[in-house]
Amino acid sequence: MGAGADCLGLLADGPSLSREDVHTLALAMSLRPALQQVQHSLKEMVEPRAVLSLLVWTCVAYLTLWLLPEPVSKVLAASMTVALIAWLGAETLWSLMDGWAALVVDVDRATSFNHVRAASERFGRTLGDNAAKVLVLLVSAALGGTAAKFAQKLPKLPGFRRAAANAEAQGVTLEHVARVEQVAASSEGTFSVLARGSPSEGAVAQGKARSVITIIRHRLGNRQVFINGQRWHVPAHRSVKEIPTSDPMGDQLQAAAKQAARRWSPSQLTDPELDAISAARAQGKYWRAQQLERMARGKFVENQLRDQFKRLEWSRTGVAAVDPSTGYKYEILTGTHWNMELHGRRMADEFFRLITFL
After folding, report:
1. For residue 100, which of 54, 72, 65 has the smallest C-alpha distance?
2. E strands of 36-102, at which residues?
3. How many Cβ atoms from other residues are within 10 Å of residue 144's Cβ?
4. Are the C-beta atoms of 230 and 221 separated by less than 8 Å?
5. Cβ-based neighbours of 270, under 8 Å, separated by 6 or more
6. Closest CA to 227 of 238, 241, 216, 237
7. Which of 19, 116, 285, 357 is within CB 3.0–4.6 Å of 261 for a Cys-Cys bond?
8. How many Å apart are CA 234 and CA 217, to the nearest integer?
9. Domain residues of the chain, as ranges?
10. What angle do CA 115, 118, 121 make, to 5 degrees?
11. What is the pTM of this model?
């Protein structure tokens, strides 16, 4: 990355830098040692700077997914998240996400290039040389391809055997990384993986096969599945065939949850919630602050549903609601505190539908 040259193409659309441009610049400075190794390996290529630019911009696009209101990566990005968990571990990936959130906040507040450089140096220290190399390595493998092509490249990467063993220990397998469709992060420091199921996992009802997508199984044998556009938790001793082909009440709850989520705004935060969020930011825990805000949003949505669906039997412990007319149980999933991983651990023996919203 030559001095004085716009090797990232930041000025391609004009003489001024957007916020995304500055985020990209800061990340490039954080990854400088790892990028220099890549640049050396590309020296025989016609346009090595173009490749480096694409690599950095792809890193920014990936990391930015974790700053969205609902922290989820999908499709190829989801496969890359599983690979990062395998190579780095969930705790290190969490630190990377938290560090990126802090970098974005610091850069957005910066009033000079020195401030941007200081923010990039802080993120570089949080990231560390090894994690930086792994991030660049995996993003390089993902460039210009699909999840299937990315999965094919993984066995050829350094450290694959150890990463595969780490993945197995955490309940996933790199052999099936191309099947991963979504990875969600929660405030509890966990990641929930949604993967396409095999054809044998299809449930049969009324003579027709229903497509079932299995979220990775919990250690106790219970699992969470997508079927007919619904998400259900199925205990180890129950079958997906027990999932109803029609659930009007659950569909109404699902639609109402999405509408309630759209009505929420930060102006509805209570004073204790605002104090907790401010305290987290003051301690530099920007990711935690974002998660606290999402938890408040989830509480708002659940309270809205309680007011709207009074005919259901609501509870503050165990499953949130029961339809007395059918016996179907429902839990409100916010993607933060009420995340899939937590629900699977807490209520392994319960059969219920998860009501989710973005």
Report:
1. 65
2. 72-74
3. 8
4. no
5. 296
6. 241
7. 357
8. 10
9. 19-185, 242-356
10. 155
11. 0.57
Residue 157 is classified by DSSP as S
User: Are the C-beta atoms of residues 185 and 97 closer than 8 Å to each other?
Assistant: yes
pLDDT bracket for residue 136 (50, 70, 90) = confident
As a whole number, mean pLDDT of residues 88-114 equals 87
Residue 255's φ and ψ, nearest 5 degrees, are -65, -40
Rg (CA), the chain: 22
What Å distances lie between residue 53 and 12, 112, 139, CA to CA? 12, 23, 12
- Asked if 201 contacts 185 with a C-beta cutoff of 8 angstroms, the reply is no
| 38 phi, psi to nearest 5 deg | -65, -40
DSSP state of 71: -
Residue-wise pLDDT tens digits, 282-310: 988 887 888 788 888 888 999 999 999 99
Distance CA 96, CA 80 (A): 14
